[in-house]
Amino acid sequence: MSPLSALRSRINEYFPPPPDLSTPPTLDSSGCFAVFGGGLKTWFLDDGSVRQVLSAKSPFTSRGRESAANPPLHFHMWQAEIFEVIKGTMVYVEEGVEKRLMAGEKGVIRPGDAHTFWVDASTGEDLEVVVTTTPKHLGFDHDFILNFYSYMDRTIGRGTTPSTIQLLTFLDGANVCLADPPRPIGRAMNLVLGRFVGQYIAGYKPRYPEWSTGLDIPLKKRSDFGLPPLQEGTR
User: Which is it for strands 40-44 and 50-54: parallel, antiparallel or unpaired?
Assistant: First the structure.
């Protein structure tokens, strides 16, 4: 056994094993990728966007900012993120300021801005939102969503604790960093814990082929939801 393999074997004793990949993500005939018992549903669009529905009643999505299915406070290193609300009310935090978007409204998060979002469950109405990151192919994409939420569903959704190192490995692969610590520390956590420890030592991956490439994903069009094409400059 090589020194690196021996080191990896010793360190792996302290980390959960990589996720069980025997069951691929399940999409129904409409192309819906549902996790957390249907609390979060995602459809994939042909322009790289996603349509998501967050339930106002699921215990995984209806508890405000602390809901298990909600993204942590984070920032995208290179991509802007566009939210277009179709139905319901979206509450989001951008650079420490809490805001709301109603049906028919759009919000844009700039690269580097700390943010997170959730459904306003107090209205009793589910949140339906189209989320677009731009430029495309700079990290956050369909494969990230399939991998990240498949893993969260198989851990938190089943009452177990996810590996922080695996989560950081996912985030590093998407050029997304946690924003609760100062930004340089969030970036360093990705590089040191997510990339070096996670990938090179623990054997985690930022994308698992079994959960991403090769899946037969029916792609929707923006027009399917009554949305116009994104204007040039916001893609």
Answer: antiparallel
Q: How far apart are CA 200 and CA 45, in angstroms?
A: 33
* Residues 145 and 215 sit within 8 Å (Cβ to Cβ): no
Q: What is the DSSP string of 179-209?
A: -SS-HHHHHHHIIIIIIIIIIIIS---SS-G
**Out of 21-30, 138-147, 181-190, least confident range:** 21-30
**φ/ψ of residue 158, rounded to 5:** -115, 15
Number of CB atoms found within 10 A of residue 202's CB: 21
Give pLDDT, residue 235. Answer: 45
pLDDT at 36: 95
Give me the residues paired with residue 81 across strands.
Answer: 109, 133
Residue 177 to residue 172: CA distance in whole angstroms: 7
- Name residues whose C-beta falls within 8 Å of residue 45's C-beta, 6 or more positions apart in sequence: 51, 130, 219, 220, 221, 222
pLDDT, tens digit, 9 for 90 and up, residues 68-88: 989 999 999 999 999 999 999
